TrEMBL record:
BP GO annotations: glycogen catabolic process
Pfam families: hDGE_amylase (PF14701), hGDE_central (PF14702)
Source organism of the structure: Cervus elaphus hippelaphus (European red deer)
Lineage: Eukaryota, Metazoa, Chordata, Craniata, Vertebrata
Domain of life: Eukaryota
GO molecular function: 4-alpha-glucanotransferase activity; amylo-alpha-1,6-glucosidase activity
Sequence ranges assigned to domain Glycogen debranching enzyme glucanotransferase in this UniProt record: 16-202
Domain Glycogen debranching enzyme central intervals: 358-614
InterPro entries assigned to the protein according to its UniProt record, in alphabetical order: AGL/Gdb1, AGL_central, AGL_glucanoTrfase, GH
Listed Gene3D superfamilies: Glycosidases
Protein name, UniProt field: AGL
Length: 726
């Protein structure tokens, strides 16, 4: 009222002026009331829509639980609030709100709000979630009121801290269920307490924020190790393959990263699940035939993976979330399928039988063969063996949907050593599924036929396999399928063809002089080119200028120029620095789609340019070119998809060695200086060089040790002093 009196002031004390102010006041009150009326109508409309949506899902929807008649156990709408008293009338409940020692026992259920801001507490003042019936409520839990700090509710904070510490004492990992609905400051406090007891605590979180930016807020503040990702969310095989590509690890042919690398944006590490206990059974939404191929696709991802009990047993309903306690055990009607998941899981990193070690995490390549077939390759970057799985998904029931018998031919680079595993989902002649009231039972008439470690010609899925070439050094096996029915998988073990395997082994052996990383998979030879043993130590700073730098105009003076990358830009320098500057941008991002990498995969033009440019010069510079040429001899013999990463490894080794040669010729101030000082000193090597046509006046003949050279045109001796480039 004080605000109203201060706002609506009559211009005089007459009755007309007072009446006018009262009318303005009445009009403003009506406007405010209308706004609130519209807001309440909006809330009311939303609440009705949410109630209708809930009733439709629970009782009418084909994918819902179909609860049937309204009963006390299954009321028409979900109960949002609970209290530890006997059921009383609505008027008695309302009166209880105003009794302090009773009101403190009235509790709101917790739950999930679709599309809500996960950083906001939907139960705090200012939220209309409960009023608008937007909460997807969980009847078995209540929303805890922590406040902003432990002092706001000492008992609750202390109680939950004790529970967290007990958990961390006995377990090395925890799962943050519904992490998006847990206040961040509370989760931080509890995880800090857990990490004091378990410093290397593995934290996996169920986090659905709808935004990777918001995901990163939770990941960075809480130190989450892995986020749960669900293959069940895929609506078709293409999306399922995309999830493997997104979360399944680095792509095949990735660059070798240095020990110290720039911090780059990245997605959170995934715990990739075929289904979780929250998912509706995929057998209902897809088909029983899809369990085998989808499990295989998930297991091929190079990240943490998991499943839910009952999926392997083909139980066609949820039971871990329903509170169902069986009197009997889980029935196994098809032990072959139960045993398959660990067999596929053996194709994960660290299994020596296929050459994966912890120091060389496998790379992943996903190929969408057709609308239903997904091929996933796991590739060892050290020994270059691969495991290739080909899975024909069955998102639609093959008994009621059409699947073409014509399966596309598939090309697999390299040599197929064996069929590690082939499996088919088949139907057997038994009674159809009936849900057991006393035990958890799966579908009895679906089983899996498995064959392991067989030769290609023994396969019942592969019709024939031929060998062809792609370019001079890349061999490909063409696979033609005859029995890859929906619900089938076949897994090959593949190696490079013998010629390429030897070449990459020798190349890795020579790269060990720069980094021990390449020792795994290396192959020592006695008849290597002698030039590969020649060090770069005899290069002068002037010669290093030509090897490392030289801009376009300087290079044109010698009749050359900087390398021009098609569909992109010319390099800034003709020397190694021009290449290294581009690679320094590509390598941390692993940008294998860059035009620079495309050019390397397409042909040997850039490779030949680097070596031939130096060989055309004389003396020690030519020796560097011959060293590169000898290394590139092996590089050209490996598959094209591996050339960018090995080209980068060769240049890094040569480049860092040449920088050391330069610094050793400088003063002790530079040699013992910081990284900044050393890199700053390279400006002298960059800016000072010897041109083809000397433009400096002759120095006195009385001076000694004046550098000279033989003029290629006049064939006369001339001075060739280093000059500062303008």
């Amino acid at each position: 009222m004080n605000v109203a009196l201060a706002t609506f002031i009559p211009h005089d004390n007459g009755p007309a002026a007072i009446n006018e102010c009262c009318n303005w006041f009445r009009k403003r009150i009506e406007e405010l009331n209308s706004e609130k009326h519209q807001l309440m109508n909006y809330h009311h409309e939303q609440a009705v829509n949410c109630l209708l949506g809930n009733v439709f899902y629970e009782r009418l929807a084909g994918h819902g639980p179909k609860l049937g008649p309204v009963t006390r156990k299954h009321p028409l709408v979900t109960r949002y609030f609970t209290f530890p008293f006997e059921d009383i009338s609505l008027s008695a409940e309302e009166s209880m709100i105003h009794v302090p020692n009773k009101a403190c026992f009235l509790m709101a259920h917790n739950g999930w709000v679709m599309g809500d801001d996960p950083l906001r507490n939907f139960a705090e003042p200012g939220s209309d979630v409960y009023l608008r019936r937007e909460l997807i409520c969980w009847g078995d839990s209540v929303k805890l009121r922590y406040g902003k700090k432990p002092e706001d509710c000492p008992y609750l904070w202390a109680h939950m801290k004790k529970y967290t510490e007990i958990t961390a004492t006995y377990f090395q990992g925890v799962r943050l269920d519904n992490c998006h609905s847990t206040p961040l400051h509370v989760a931080e406090y509890m995880l800090d307490a857990a990490r004091k007891l378990q410093p290397n605590l593995y934290v996996v979180a169920e986090l659905f924020t709808g935004s990777e930016d918001l995901d990163n807020v939770f990941v960075t503040r809480l130190g989450i190790s892995s986020l749960i990702r669900e293959a069940m969310s895929a609506y078709d095989s293409h999306e399922e393959g995309r999830l493997v590509y997104r979360y399944g690890g680095e792509p095949v042919g990735s660059f070798v990263q240095p020990c110290l690398r720039p911090l780059m944006p990245a997605i959170a590490h995934a715990l990739f699940m075929d289904i979780t206990h929250d998912n509706e059974c995929p057998i209902v939404h897809r088909s029983a035939y899809d369990a085998l191929p989808s499990t295989t696709i998930v297991s091929m991802a190079c990240c943490a993976s998991g499943s839910t009990k009952g999926y392997d047993e083909l139980v066609p309903h949820q039971f871990l979330k329903s509170g169902f306690t069986p009197n009997g055990i889980l029935q196994h009607h098809h032990p072959a399928l139960v045993k398959l998941t660990p067999k596929v899981a053996l194709l994960r990193p660290g299994v020596l039988s296929i050459g994966f070690t912890k120091s060389s995490e496998p790379r992943v390549y996903v190929d969408q063969v057709d609308a239903d077939i997904v091929a996933v390759t796991r590739h060892s970057p050290s020994i270059h063996q691969s495991v290739v799985s080909v899975s024909r998904t069955a998102f639609r029931n093959p008994k009621t949907s059409f699947y073409s018998k014509e399966v596309p031919q598939m090309c697999i680079p390299g040599k197929i050593e064996e069929v590690v595993l082939e499996a088919r989902t088949v139907e057997r002649n038994t009674a159809p599924y009936r849900k057991d009231a006393n035990s958890i039972n799966g579908i009895p008439n679906i089983t899996v036929e498995i064959r392991e470690h067989i030769q290609l010609n023994e396969s019942k899925i592969v019709k024939q396999a031929g060998v062809t070439t792609k370019g001079p050094n890349e061999y490909i096996q063409e696979i033609e399928f005859e029995n890859l029915s929906p619900g089938s998988v076949i897994i090959f073990r593949v190696s490079l063809d013998p010629h390429a395997q030897v070449a990459v082994g020798i190349l890795r052996n020579h790269l060990t002089q720069f980094s021990p990383h390449f020792k795994s998979g290396s192959l020592a030879v006695d008849n290597a080119d002698p030039i590969l043993k020649i060090p770069f130590a005899s290069l002068t700073l002037a010669e290093l200028n030509q090897v490392l730098y030289r801009c376009e105009s300087e290079e044109q003076e010698d009749g050359g120029g900087c390398y021009n990358i098609p569909n992109w830009l010319p390099l800034k320098y003709a020397g190694l620095q021009g290449l290294m500057s581009v690679l320094a941008e590509i390598r941390p991002k692993n940008d294998l789609g860059h035009p620079f990498c495309d050019n390397l995969r397409s042909g040997d033009w850039m490779i030949d340019y680097v070596s031939n440019r130096l060989i055309s010069r004389s003396g020690t510079i030519a020796e560097v070119g011959k060293w590169l040429q000898a290394m590139f001899f092996y590089l050209k013999q490996i598959p094209r998809y591996l050339i960018p990463c090995y080209f980068d490894a060769i240049l890094i080794g040569a480049y860092t060695t040449l920088l050391d040669v330069a610094w050793k010729q400088m003063s002790s101030f530079v040699q013992n200086g910081s990284t900044f000082v050393k890199h700053l000193s390279l400006g002298s090597v960059q800016m000072c060089g010897v041109g083809r046509f000397s433009s400096l006046p002759l120095l006195s003949p009385s001076l000694t040790d004046v550098p000279c050279r033989l003029n290629e045109i006049t064939r006369e001796k001339e001075q060739c002093c280093v000059s500062l480039a303008a």
